[in-house]
Fold each of these.
Amino acid sequence: MKAVHFGAGNIGRGFVGLLLHDAGYEIVFADVDGALIDALNAADSYRVHSVGELPTEHVMTGFRAVDSATEPGRLVGELATADIVTTAVGVRILPFIAPLIADGLRARPAEAEPLIVMACENSVSATDQLATAVEGAAGAQWPGLRERAVFANTAVDRIVPQQPADGGLDVVVEDFCEWVIEAAPFRGALPPIGGATFVADLAPYIERKLYTVNTGHAATAYCGYLQCADTIAEAISLPAVRDSVRRALEETSQALVVRHGLDPAEQAGYRARILARFGSDELRDAVTRVGRDPLRKLGRRDRFVAPAAELAEAGVVPVALLQAISAALRFDAAGDRQARELAEKLRTLPAALAVERITGVTGEHPLFEPLRDVFVDARRSRWSLHLYTASGM
């Protein structure tokens, strides 16, 4: 069995690729980082160190790598004979790899089993987004190619922190991981992936993860950044940050319980486990890394605005989530392109227009007015800080 995985970074090597390897698949990593590709092809193995309550060490073997930028023909050949294709590249990159997958389907033997395609990204229905992009790339040939692939949405959860600069190919990850896959697209013929869980309804799992793990992680980063914390573990150890994050997750839990009928006690336990995971001293993840790309994280369907909007539609003012959004608007880490773009939008756009452009929430929505107040306050706060700093005080 063979799996092609797009994205040879830490998540690809330390999570998805590892689980597929443990399930018996030969792994072909695809990436545009030529140096990383060369390092993988020169290595016989690398180690994945899982840390936490049950620390273990895994030795990864049976892999090779292809440069998708310079060797597209070779990669298409790998895709044509693969059993599974997975991704961990970020949803914005999916349209760029879609033409390669479309070419792989064209080259696939007609008698071959359908190619299983799963996007393992921090986004709702990421595989659906990839499927739409592949359809666009296939053009008029899509009706004939569609039967050569099975597209299944997934939810993935494993904290993979920033790695040591001298770590090489080895990866440090937390010992907890979860890979949940929707079962319906397989029509009863589930692929052999021992580390995955197949479910009839993926929505509760993916939203529970996105609105608990991702919301909490980002909220810890943004609130911790304002408190001058360097790492997530340091940030969550601060009482003010921990309280802010706890209250935000209580609000997202409220939305999840209403939307999916989750058991409130079970969700409270899940929430507590997430907060404990953030506090691991062995996962020294920088708040600037976790908080990067704030514009994406403030999007309409992402970790803050989506659950806040659901609560507002139910007549509940999401106080703690609005406070987390306010912290995100003040995130100005050096070198973060989206943080600079966010600051420019706040500086130049009227608050109402900034709300619509950044969050996608429009004037008729019950969350719009509270968001506008947050944006006005964030703009005033950032500008006051700028003046204070510029004056040399």
Amino acid sequence: MTSTAEATDPGSTWPAGAATAGGSLPGQDPLEAVRLVFGELGSLPFLPELPQRGAGADMIGRGASLLVALPVEIVPSGWRLTDHPGRDLRRANDFLSRDLDALQLQAEGYRGPLKVQVPGPWTLAASLELPSGHRAVSDRGATRDLAESLTEGVRLHLEELGKRVPGASLVLQVDEPSLPTVLAGQVPTASGYGSIRAVESAVAEQLLGQLLAVAPAGGRVVHCCAEKPPLAIFRGAGADALSIDATGADLTRAEQLDPLGNAVDAGVGLWLGVVPAVDAPISSRLVVDRISKLWNALGFAPDQLAHFVVPTTACGLAGATPGYVRRAFTVLREVGEELREQR
């Protein structure tokens, strides 16, 4: 990567040296989870998701519960749009209400950045079924209706968060793990014998941008843990930061490095998933070395690193042990502090 060694400061909502995590955690106690997050990752805390509580507390269930005027229910194959709200949706809404209550209690008087995660329109459309049993993404009109409903629901969700934690600067993390599959035309049909036709990049960017636009400027993050996330689409949609898995592929290779360098050149932050999402040996020193190696390869000034890079987890931690989660949070916090001290 050839660079000018200078980049425009992104003017992020989060402070230099901040660290955070994907969003989901093991366990079933929302108050305990919020206390852990604020205690360990107080520079950029988030509203945890606890999918071990059951359907409705998972990422797709949480996203489905935010839809406006599009009720959902659980069928053997997953979440499906339906005509009338029922107990499945009530349970999902109850999980969210409990989470918000726990957050409000723990964050009383808090002032600073606060992150919340939601599934993106394409991941939700690739996961939810229409009443016919087909994936919503197979119907372009249904996908647009779903995206509009999700956008309005997220707007209301952020409004509610602002009321409960009035001192917070809200950061919206949109999770799009399924978007590469959607773009490649690899989402299976209901029968499993075929695949749904690919979605054009411009269409994908438009609907994603529509959702990001409801978040405050400076606090729009898109997360994708796929091997080759569509970074150009995320940037075109208005992302202020790109959240990617940095534990697998060598990001210093040219095909990986150039898009990241271009993003930083444009003032876009990098949230690097440097801590595995499941139990694995980790150390602050190794993580700092990995981040520094990438930043040096990008060619930007060392004193800018902590402004642009946020260390995080590769994905959610729902599949990890509680002990590993605490260790991961400690490592992330220490890494963020060391990056800040290097300025």
Amino acid sequence: MSDSAQSRITAHVETLLGCTRCPLMFKPVVSGLPVVSRVMLIGQAPGVKEPQLGRPFAWTAGKTLFQWFKESCGIDEATFRQRVYMAAVCRCFPGKAPGGGDRVPNPLEIANCSSWMQAEFEILKPALIIPVGKLAILQFFAFQKLTEVIGKKFRDERIGCDIIALPHPSGASTWHRMEPGKSLLTEALQLICKHPAFPADQ
């Protein structure tokens, strides 16, 4: 990729970090490094720890996620963060839900944040997108059950890239630790590892 792409994504992230579009969201904005990459990983939204630590997937779910890539692809967390552009459906912590757990971003918040992701598609022109968790996957196609989408490769002609989804690595979820989720997760990770764009060159 060109120096122009690097300058554009650097400026993009700097602007993103100053976003104040959603009054119910908690600041600061969380973003990955301004990495020029043909691979994008897209999470759902930061948890309570990510704003404190200043990076996506910085806590328990992240440890699980990076362990998946280490065991399946031989790529450690530091290398992954340097080679893959890490984004999210929403870039701020939504707060806690009344019934416990993190609040799911509302449709307006998702729409407000979508332009950041669209700009990233235009700058990076990804060859592979890895949406993690139901909310992230739903930004690309509709589905009812994770078994319909995990372990498969899809083509998004709007963006011109492949989509390989992963379940959310949350400790609260048992889906990826039980069959058929466990086997489908393995298949998804194998597809990612074998994809020609992964691991991404800077």
